[in-house]
Design a protein that fits this description.
mainly alpha; 10 helices
Length: 209
Protein backbone atom coordinates (compact mmCIF):
# COMPACT_ATOMS: atom_id res chain seq x y z
CA UNK A 1 0.00 0.00 0.00
CA UNK A 2 2.96 2.33 0.55
CA UNK A 3 3.77 2.17 -3.16
CA UNK A 4 0.18 3.00 -4.10
CA UNK A 5 0.25 5.93 -1.70
CA UNK A 6 3.50 7.19 -3.25
CA UNK A 7 1.97 7.01 -6.75
CA UNK A 8 -1.00 9.05 -5.59
CA UNK A 9 1.19 11.61 -3.80
CA UNK A 10 3.55 11.96 -6.77
CA UNK A 11 0.61 12.62 -9.09
CA UNK A 12 -1.57 14.56 -6.67
CA UNK A 13 -1.98 17.58 -8.96
CA UNK A 14 -3.34 15.41 -11.75
CA UNK A 15 -5.59 13.40 -9.42
CA UNK A 16 -6.89 16.41 -7.50
CA UNK A 17 -7.81 18.16 -10.74
CA UNK A 18 -9.43 14.98 -12.00
CA UNK A 19 -11.37 14.65 -8.76
CA UNK A 20 -12.59 18.24 -9.17
CA UNK A 21 -13.67 17.58 -12.76
CA UNK A 22 -15.46 14.38 -11.78
CA UNK A 23 -17.19 15.94 -8.79
CA UNK A 24 -18.40 18.99 -10.74
CA UNK A 25 -19.63 16.73 -13.53
CA UNK A 26 -21.41 14.44 -11.09
CA UNK A 27 -23.11 17.32 -9.24
CA UNK A 28 -24.21 18.84 -12.56
CA UNK A 29 -25.54 15.46 -13.69
CA UNK A 30 -27.46 14.85 -10.47
CA UNK A 31 -28.89 18.37 -10.48
CA UNK A 32 -29.98 18.43 -14.13
CA UNK A 33 -30.53 14.79 -15.03
CA UNK A 34 -29.18 12.75 -17.91
CA UNK A 35 -31.04 14.26 -20.86
CA UNK A 36 -31.18 17.85 -19.61
CA UNK A 37 -27.43 17.88 -18.91
CA UNK A 38 -26.82 16.66 -22.47
CA UNK A 39 -28.87 19.52 -23.91
CA UNK A 40 -27.28 22.11 -21.64
CA UNK A 41 -23.80 20.99 -22.71
CA UNK A 42 -24.75 21.35 -26.39
CA UNK A 43 -26.13 24.87 -26.84
CA UNK A 44 -23.93 26.01 -29.73
CA UNK A 45 -22.79 24.09 -32.83
CA UNK A 46 -21.01 26.25 -35.43
CA UNK A 47 -19.61 24.29 -38.38
CA UNK A 48 -15.90 25.03 -37.60
CA UNK A 49 -16.38 23.62 -34.10
CA UNK A 50 -18.04 20.54 -35.58
CA UNK A 51 -14.99 19.90 -37.74
CA UNK A 52 -12.64 20.51 -34.81
CA UNK A 53 -14.33 18.00 -32.51
CA UNK A 54 -14.78 15.44 -35.30
CA UNK A 55 -10.98 15.43 -35.64
CA UNK A 56 -10.12 15.93 -31.97
CA UNK A 57 -12.23 13.01 -30.76
CA UNK A 58 -9.83 10.60 -32.50
CA UNK A 59 -7.35 11.20 -29.67
CA UNK A 60 -9.60 8.79 -27.76
CA UNK A 61 -9.49 6.19 -30.51
CA UNK A 62 -7.62 2.93 -30.03
CA UNK A 63 -5.48 3.70 -33.07
CA UNK A 64 -4.04 6.78 -31.36
CA UNK A 65 -3.29 4.82 -28.19
CA UNK A 66 -1.60 2.13 -30.30
CA UNK A 67 0.53 4.82 -31.98
CA UNK A 68 1.70 6.08 -28.57
CA UNK A 69 2.55 2.52 -27.49
CA UNK A 70 4.53 1.94 -30.70
CA UNK A 71 6.37 5.24 -30.17
CA UNK A 72 7.38 4.16 -26.66
CA UNK A 73 8.66 0.88 -28.08
CA UNK A 74 10.65 2.69 -30.78
CA UNK A 75 12.17 4.83 -28.02
CA UNK A 76 12.95 1.56 -26.17
CA UNK A 77 10.91 2.62 -23.15
CA UNK A 78 9.77 -0.95 -22.72
CA UNK A 79 8.39 -0.84 -19.14
CA UNK A 80 6.20 2.12 -20.03
CA UNK A 81 5.10 0.62 -23.35
CA UNK A 82 4.04 -2.66 -21.72
CA UNK A 83 2.22 -0.96 -18.88
CA UNK A 84 0.32 1.28 -21.29
CA UNK A 85 -0.54 -1.67 -23.53
CA UNK A 86 -1.88 -3.75 -20.65
CA UNK A 87 -3.81 -0.82 -19.16
CA UNK A 88 -5.32 0.02 -22.54
CA UNK A 89 -6.38 -3.57 -23.26
CA UNK A 90 -7.77 -4.09 -19.77
CA UNK A 91 -9.74 -0.83 -19.76
CA UNK A 92 -11.11 -1.57 -23.24
CA UNK A 93 -12.19 -5.04 -22.12
CA UNK A 94 -13.95 -3.71 -19.01
CA UNK A 95 -15.67 -0.98 -21.04
CA UNK A 96 -16.93 -3.49 -23.61
CA UNK A 97 -18.24 -5.82 -20.91
CA UNK A 98 -20.14 -2.94 -19.28
CA UNK A 99 -21.52 -1.83 -22.66
CA UNK A 100 -23.01 -5.29 -23.16
CA UNK A 101 -24.23 -5.66 -19.58
CA UNK A 102 -26.06 -2.32 -19.45
CA UNK A 103 -26.86 -1.87 -23.18
CA UNK A 104 -27.92 1.75 -22.65
CA UNK A 105 -29.19 3.86 -25.57
CA UNK A 106 -27.09 6.52 -27.24
CA UNK A 107 -28.52 10.06 -27.40
CA UNK A 108 -29.83 9.56 -30.92
CA UNK A 109 -32.04 6.73 -29.65
CA UNK A 110 -33.37 8.85 -26.77
CA UNK A 111 -34.35 12.13 -28.41
CA UNK A 112 -37.32 12.26 -30.75
CA UNK A 113 -37.04 14.05 -34.08
CA UNK A 114 -36.97 17.79 -33.45
CA UNK A 115 -35.92 17.61 -29.76
CA UNK A 116 -32.25 18.01 -30.62
CA UNK A 117 -31.05 19.56 -33.88
CA UNK A 118 -27.29 18.99 -33.81
CA UNK A 119 -26.79 15.32 -34.61
CA UNK A 120 -24.21 15.07 -37.41
CA UNK A 121 -25.06 12.76 -40.26
CA UNK A 122 -22.36 10.19 -40.91
CA UNK A 123 -20.77 10.87 -37.52
CA UNK A 124 -23.36 10.42 -34.77
CA UNK A 125 -24.11 6.76 -34.06
CA UNK A 126 -27.36 4.99 -33.30
CA UNK A 127 -27.54 1.98 -31.02
CA UNK A 128 -27.44 0.79 -27.44
CA UNK A 129 -23.76 0.82 -26.51
CA UNK A 130 -23.61 4.19 -24.82
CA UNK A 131 -22.46 3.32 -21.29
CA UNK A 132 -19.58 3.77 -20.69
CA UNK A 133 -17.87 5.86 -23.35
CA UNK A 134 -15.10 3.80 -24.92
CA UNK A 135 -13.23 6.85 -26.22
CA UNK A 136 -13.35 8.44 -22.75
CA UNK A 137 -12.09 5.23 -21.16
CA UNK A 138 -9.23 5.05 -23.64
CA UNK A 139 -8.13 8.68 -23.44
CA UNK A 140 -8.25 8.82 -19.63
CA UNK A 141 -6.24 5.60 -19.44
CA UNK A 142 -3.67 7.12 -21.78
CA UNK A 143 -3.63 10.50 -20.03
CA UNK A 144 -3.21 8.96 -16.58
CA UNK A 145 -0.40 6.68 -17.71
CA UNK A 146 1.43 9.53 -19.44
CA UNK A 147 0.97 11.69 -16.34
CA UNK A 148 2.47 8.94 -14.19
CA UNK A 149 5.41 8.52 -16.59
CA UNK A 150 6.00 12.27 -16.88
CA UNK A 151 8.97 13.44 -14.82
CA UNK A 152 7.91 17.07 -14.86
CA UNK A 153 4.80 16.78 -12.71
CA UNK A 154 3.92 20.43 -13.27
CA UNK A 155 2.65 19.69 -16.76
CA UNK A 156 0.55 16.66 -15.78
CA UNK A 157 -2.62 18.71 -15.80
CA UNK A 158 -2.16 19.25 -19.55
CA UNK A 159 -2.80 15.55 -20.13
CA UNK A 160 -5.96 15.82 -18.06
CA UNK A 161 -7.23 18.87 -19.96
CA UNK A 162 -6.78 17.05 -23.26
CA UNK A 163 -8.63 14.01 -21.88
CA UNK A 164 -11.49 16.18 -20.59
CA UNK A 165 -11.77 17.89 -23.99
CA UNK A 166 -11.95 14.49 -25.72
CA UNK A 167 -14.61 13.42 -23.22
CA UNK A 168 -16.60 16.55 -24.00
CA UNK A 169 -16.23 15.88 -27.72
CA UNK A 170 -18.19 12.64 -27.23
CA UNK A 171 -21.09 14.68 -25.83
CA UNK A 172 -20.74 17.46 -28.40
CA UNK A 173 -20.87 14.97 -31.28
CA UNK A 174 -24.01 13.39 -29.83
CA UNK A 175 -22.34 10.05 -29.19
CA UNK A 176 -22.69 9.88 -25.41
CA UNK A 177 -24.28 11.36 -22.31
CA UNK A 178 -22.32 12.90 -19.44
CA UNK A 179 -22.99 9.70 -17.48
CA UNK A 180 -21.06 7.69 -20.05
CA UNK A 181 -18.10 10.07 -20.10
CA UNK A 182 -17.80 10.23 -16.31
CA UNK A 183 -17.85 6.45 -16.00
CA UNK A 184 -15.35 6.06 -18.82
CA UNK A 185 -13.02 8.56 -17.17
CA UNK A 186 -13.27 6.76 -13.83
CA UNK A 187 -12.45 3.42 -15.43
CA UNK A 188 -9.49 4.87 -17.30
CA UNK A 189 -7.92 6.63 -14.32
CA UNK A 190 -8.50 3.74 -11.91
CA UNK A 191 -7.21 0.99 -14.20
CA UNK A 192 -4.12 2.99 -15.20
CA UNK A 193 -3.16 3.56 -11.55
CA UNK A 194 -3.76 -0.09 -10.61
CA UNK A 195 -1.75 -1.42 -13.56
CA UNK A 196 1.18 0.85 -12.73
CA UNK A 197 0.96 -0.06 -9.05
CA UNK A 198 1.00 -3.81 -9.74
CA UNK A 199 3.37 -4.03 -12.71
CA UNK A 200 5.82 -1.12 -12.68
CA UNK A 201 8.46 -2.75 -10.44
CA UNK A 202 8.25 -6.04 -12.26
CA UNK A 203 8.88 -4.50 -15.65
CA UNK A 204 11.71 -2.35 -14.29
CA UNK A 205 13.45 -5.39 -12.78
CA UNK A 206 13.13 -7.33 -16.05
CA UNK A 207 14.48 -4.39 -18.05
CA UNK A 208 17.43 -4.09 -15.69
CA UNK A 209 18.14 -7.81 -15.98
Amino acid sequence: MNKLRSIIVANRNFLLCYGFFFLVGLIFLLAQGKTASFLLLNPYHPTPLDYFFIAFTYLGDGIFAAAVIILLMVLRRWPQAWQLLIAFLLSALVAQILKNVFSMPRPREVFNHGEYAYFIEGITHHGFSSFPSGHSTSVFTLATMLAIFERNKKINVLYLLIAVAVGYSRIYLGQHFLTDVLMGSFLGVTIAILVHWILADRFRSRAAA
